[in-house]
Design brief:
Chain lengths: 14, 257
């Protein structure tokens, strides 16, 4: 099964 | 002093309906450029990005940049009090802890105003890099909503795969599988019914149905929806709000172990 990733692993916190 | 007047208050109501599943509260950033909102859902899987341009409003004044934290359930209650054809004017003083919404009927024979408390929210903004997407799909927003709704019955995830032949949406689960393929169709008479694909290279990504379904709550805002995809990059689902701006949703993909 595929795992849900989160946006914070793609985009940097400002 | 901040003041923004929108003849079609229903547009703002539609925006609220589109984001209230994902967000309980959010900060509206007001500047002379307009109103912006960027917020992630509590699980950090999706992000809402709203941009309403100042020149899309019938009147817009913002003397000092202002961040208005609002509870979206409360804001929904305020807009529930508006009529479908009402004009809305939002007003806030500099450094105020409340915002006022005034609704005027078309005939100007009924005027109501509601003052709502603002909240101090911890804002967490993400820097979203410019991406060269592998494929950009434009399709009727109603068709997208229908496909997501239909396939959500089959599983928790939908695979969106795009090649030069077209775009395929697939789901599988206990009861079986479902596939919907759309070919490019250009309808010059009815642009809004077209399916267009701008493809650099084929891409296939898996996304959670729950979030895709939430995004389709924005369907009443726009005839068309734009899906931008790239390998290992969040999906962007964009609804243009005619003459006013756009509402974008970002969704982190599901990744194979």
């Amino acid at each position: 099964a595929a795992n849900q990733s989160t946006l914070t692993s793609f985009f940097k916190r400002k | 002093m901040f003041e923004a007047r929108l003849v079609n208050s229903s547009t703002f109501r539609k925006v609220l309906d589109a984001i209230k599943d994902l967000l309980n509260e959010a900060s509206f950033d007001c500047s002379e450029n307009g109103i912006q909102l960027q917020a992630m859902d509590s699980s950090h899987v999706s992000l809402v990005s709203l941009n309403l341009k100042s020149d899309g409003f019938d009147k817009f004044r913002c003397d000092r940049n202002l961040t208005m934290g609002m509870n979206l359930t409360s804001l929904g209650k305020v807009f529930k009090c508006s009529g479908a054809d009402d004009t809305v004017t939002m007003k806030a003083q500099d450094y105020a802890d409340t915002v006022t919404f005034m609704f005027e009927s078309k005939k100007q024979d009924k005027i109501s105003d509601y003052e709502m408390k603002l909240m101090n929210l911890d804002q967490e903004h993400l820097g979203i890099p410019d991406t060269e997407f592998s494929c950009i799909i434009k399709m009727p927003s109603i068709e997208f909503a229908r496909i997501i709704r239909d396939l959500s019955q089959f599983g928790e995830s939908i695979v969106i795969s795009c090649t030069k032949e077209g775009v395929k949406f697939s789901a599988q689960g206990d009861i079986g599988t479902g596939n919907v393929k759309l070919a490019q169709t250009h309808n010059f008479d009815k642009e809004e019914e077209s399916v267009t694909i701008d493809l650099q290279e084929p891409v296939a990504l898996t996304f959670a149905c729950q979030y895709l379904n939430s995004f389709t709550k924005a369907t009443p805002l726009s005839n068309q929806v734009k899906l931008s995809m790239c390998e290992n990059v969040p999906l962007v689902v964009e609804y243009q709000i005619p003459e006013l701006g756009h509402l974008r949703f970002y969704l982190a993909p599901k990744i194979e172990e």
